[in-house]
Design brief:
about 100 residues, mainly alpha, Serine Threonine Protein Phosphatase 5, Tetratricopeptide repeat, 4 helices
Length: about 100
Amino acid sequence: MSDKVAWGVFKGLFYATNQHLLQQAALEQEEALRIEKQKQAETLFEYRKQRALKGSASASFDLGLMLLHGEGTETNAELGLKYIRIAANGGYGSAIEFLKNQKN
């Protein structure tokens, strides 16, 4: 094999390996961002839960939405609607409107 052919083969292998490493790094970064976003959602869920338990209508509504959509927790429509009803009973306008729209 001539030096020119060997050099071409080397460059091709180097390029392919480099591309693979770049793709792998991008996938790992995406996964790290997904995990960080999930941790933030879980922290926000716990914060809103604590505020809701202390009587905050806005936190009850937000917590209900998070439960409905599975943000920071498992999806639980029944519990989510319960918290939204609590917020509506507390006079929170967004919760009242949400429940009105659910009936239609």
